[in-house]
Design goal:
This protein has about 425 residues and is mostly helical. The protein has helices spanning about 1-25, 30-55, 60-65, 65-90, 95-105, 110-120, 125-170, 180-185, 210-250, 260-270, 270-285, 295-315, 325-350, 355-365, 370-380, 385-415. Helix 1 (about 1-25) runs antiparallel to helix 16 and helix 14 (about 355-365) runs antiparallel to helix 16 (about 385-415). It is globular.
């Protein structure tokens, strides 16, 4: 276990801290940071997912149907549970909850799977089987679902912003908070209002003026963000209207796709979505990719892990680190609740008699969050603060919880062995 912490966990934290420091000293520009995210999401990660999946076989998927089904329903089920709870309790939008589920509900099996499981259980057929099955489920099912939900959320927000823009055009409101200060300012001690300029110097700390200044300053920031978002939406809608007008001139014009269909199509355009799906199709069809292609794919794939962790640190540097209730919940969900639920159902369906295979499964689903989640978060600027903080805390926490599961699983397993 000490070897895993020194060789695998500490390097992740060191590279993440390095990325955080680079971000704080502005070593990379915003465009360069986005370039890192694009490199990982569109090139290195798809290659890594493709390589890890095509090495599996049809025989692996049906060799242990109980393991496959528990991994499938357990991993996907916990992904959706994370999504639902994020929406219900933390009041996040659909796209934010989708990124939360990609982080809290998905283990980094492709990056740490072999590095953690091989030293503990050995490089065996069973180890390769567990890693391959969980990797296929995480990379070929939950990532596409996450992208679909992100697209649905973005489309819904665009529609809401469009309606809001139309309503604002019909009944213009003050352009800035400063213009609306009398309406927003709180009542003074004498029953009047406190006149404050949110763009002016900050009043003395603890005064009524300072409280009003903070309230108005925050409100003005929200309005500026909303205006910027609406401008983007209006530009997008104008481009779409022009495109549709052109299409209508064509006799082969077809009606636009429904919102759901469009979200699916947009998701499938992403290399990180279609790459693992293509790999799974090849595995199911029994098509084996020649081993001579492995070095080419693996050379690109090797860039994934280091750059992804560095990019996660860069993303964390752009926001204030959070150790609040949501970060702690995501960490608990990823490292404790998910493996506990899957352990319960694995025991329920008879995996107690499967030797080390049960421990392998629990360790595979108890890994820190998938780095693909934070890359997607940084790429689309969605759920960055909570996501980056959750990845950092969960990765550090895994050094403790991994020891817990290594010790606990055999004890629980022995209670149910027939």
């Amino acid at each position: 276990m000490e070897k895993i912490i020194i060789n695998d966990i500490i390097p992740i934290l060191v590279i993440m801290v390095l990325g955080y420091w680079f971000g704080k000293i502005t070593y990379f520009t915003d465009e360069q940071r986005q370039g890192f995210n694009k490199l990982v999401l569109n090139v290195a990660l798809p290659a890594a997912l493709f390589v890890s999946i095509v090495k599996a076989s049809r025989e692996m998927l049906v060799e242990d149907i109980t393991l496959t089904l528990i991994s499938l329903f357990g991993t996907v089920g916990m992904f959706f549970l994370s999504f639902i709870l994020c929406r219900a309790f933390f009041k996040h939008s659909i796209q934010e909850a989708a990124v939360c589920a990609l982080i809290a509900g998905s283990p980094t099996i492709g990056f740490l799977g072999f590095a953690v499981l091989d030293p503990i259980y050995g490089n065996t057929v069973d180890t390769n089987l567990v890693i391959a099955i969980v990797a296929i489920i995480v990379n070929a099912i939950t990532i596409p679902i996450g992208f679909y939900l992100i697209n649905i959320g973005l489309q819904r927000d665009a529609a809401i912003a469009k309606r809001a823009a139309k309503k604002a055009a019909e009944a213009p409101a003050p352009a800035t908070v400063a213009a609306a200060a009398p309406a927003l300012a709180g009542a003074g001690a004498g029953g009047g209002t406190i006149a404050v300029d949110p763009n002016g110097p900050r009043p003395a700390k603890g005064t009524d003026e300072e409280r009003e200044w903070k309230k108005l300053h925050k409100a003005e920031e929200k309005i500026e963000k909303a205006e910027a978002h609406m401008e983007k939406v209006q530009d997008k809608e104008a481009a779409k209207a022009a495109y549709l007008a052109k299409k209508k001139e064509d006799p082969h014009y077809k009606k636009p796709h429904s919102q759901n269909a469009e979200a699916v199509i947009n998701a499938l355009k992403e290399p990180v979505v279609w790459s693992p799906i293509l790999a799974v199709v090849l595995v199911i069809l029994g098509v084996r990719v020649p081993e001579s292609f492995d070095p080419s794919f693996e050379l690109i794939a090797k860039a994934n892990s280091g750059v992804a962790v560095l990019a996660a640190g860069l993303a964390l540097s752009t926001v204030r680190f959070s150790l609040g209730a949501e970060t702690l919940w995501n960490t608990f969900f990823r490292l404790i609740l998910t493996p506990a639920v899957i352990l319960f159902f694995a025991i329920l369906f008879g995996m107690a008699n499967d030797g080390d295979k049960l421990g392998m499964l629990i360790m595979a689903v108890a890994l820190p969050p998938a780095f693909s989640g934070i890359i997607i978060s940084a790429r689309y600027n969605i759920y960055v603060q909570e996501g980056a903080s959750s990845v950092a805390v969960s990765t550090a926490g895994f050094a403790v919880t991994s020891i817990l599961w290594i010790w606990l699983v055999p004890i629980i397993q022995a209670m149910f062995v027939h």
